Amino acid sequence: MSAEVEAPRPSHPAPWPHLAVLAAVAAWFWLYGRLPAISEALTALIPVERHSHTGEALAFFFYDVPKVLMLLALIVFAMGVVRSFFSPERTRALLAGRREGVGNVLAALLGVVTPFCSCSAVPLFIGLVSAGVPLGVTFSFLIAAPMVNEVALVMLFGLVGPVVALTYFSFGLAVAILAGWVIGRLHLEGWLQDWVRDIATGASAPEEAGGAPLSMVERYRLGVEALREIMGRVWLWILLGIAMGALIHGYVPEDLMVRIMGADAWWSVPAAVVLGIPMYTNAAGVIPIVEALLGKGAALGTVLAFMMSVIALSLPEMIILRQVLTLRLIAVFIGVVGSGILAVGFLFNLLF
Amino acid sequence: MEIKVLGTGCAKCRATVELIERVAREAGREVSVVKIEDLRRIAGYGVMSTPAVVVGEKVVHKGSVPAPDEVLGWLA
């Protein structure tokens, strides 16, 4: 975020950026409304029986893929603008000295809206802990930030449905809040790497960098930047995920899937969690696979557990966090978050 | 002059270093860009999001690849 950088701004901002955004959004809705017709027309151009397997796959490709990409573009832009109102520094100021409990809830919610990239997870972690944010509250933030994000929610909404998206959102938050709270209760501050503990004990009050508030135009620019950056990163994963999903749709026999990932196979939930840890992809890649698994009769809880595990417990992130956490603390982190995910998995298999 | 780029080696950090070097070259300025990857030193600057840019021991930018105009401003 370039909030601190002084830039000359016109005193009377021109109205055209607002109009441009308005026009773009209007064009978006116009196109989105016509997407089914356009996709049918495109599918019809290809000489394949519409209701054959290939026809269905093509229709999926020409409808679901553009639909998800469009939804993603809109939401990522909107979130880019929303995020410009938040910054890690602001989040830190909001969380510093906050009690556990309320702090965990607030941290998980802020995790959704604060700009976050796993490559700066460590500076963020140190920044929070050194400002006196309790360890458990910090963890609530660190768990929610990657797991409950707009890319995951939009893709779930677009490919699987609003109910599952909402479920994922609320239970993702719940896992982040509870896991952070449990880690806080365990009082593991001593298990931080020594140098982090030294910084933490010399806790310095963070000086809030001032600077003029961003103009709305500047925020639009940040939204467009987020759009470019996230779409640029995610499109390949989406294609790979959809290809994997298509393979599952086409080649994985249904009875096999019901047997190994159905609600009756209790061991499938822990297996899904364990399998998810070394897998590193982001939400964009997992969700098409999730959709295909659900279509083949895999149980919702098992699939949710798999997804949360892939996104929240990733090996590369552990390696990054290893610089500030001792192995013992990482083990506790995996144990607590993993148990939370297991609980979500079992609960959903029981309920649905 | 010396410009420090703080970051743990992510793609955006490399892009930031390249951008500063390019802008400096085009502006004909002598600049040494130092990359700081050590977490303790990064934490020492109180930076919470990387890449961050330090000019004259002052953090002038953080959290993203800066715009070329911004870079020109630091070189002045």
TrEMBL record, chain A:
It is found in: Cell membrane. PANTHER family: PERMEASE RV2963-RELATED. InterPro entries: DUF318, UPF0718_permease. This is Permease. The chain crosses the membrane at residues 16-33, 68-86, 106-129, 135-156, 163-183, 234-253, 265-287, 293-315, 327-351. Keywords: Cell membrane, Membrane, Transmembrane, Transmembrane helix. Its main location: membrane. Belongs to the UPF0718 family. GO terms for cellular component: plasma membrane. It is a multi-pass membrane protein. It comes from Paenirhodobacter ferrireducens.
From TrEMBL, chain B:
The keyword Disulfide bond applies. Keywords: Disulfide bond, Redox-active center. The active site is at C10 (nucleophile), C13 (nucleophile). Pfam families: Thioredoxin_3 (PF13192). Disulfide bonds join C10-C13. Residues 1-75 form the Thioredoxin-like fold domain. This is Thioredoxin family protein. It comes from Paenirhodobacter ferrireducens.
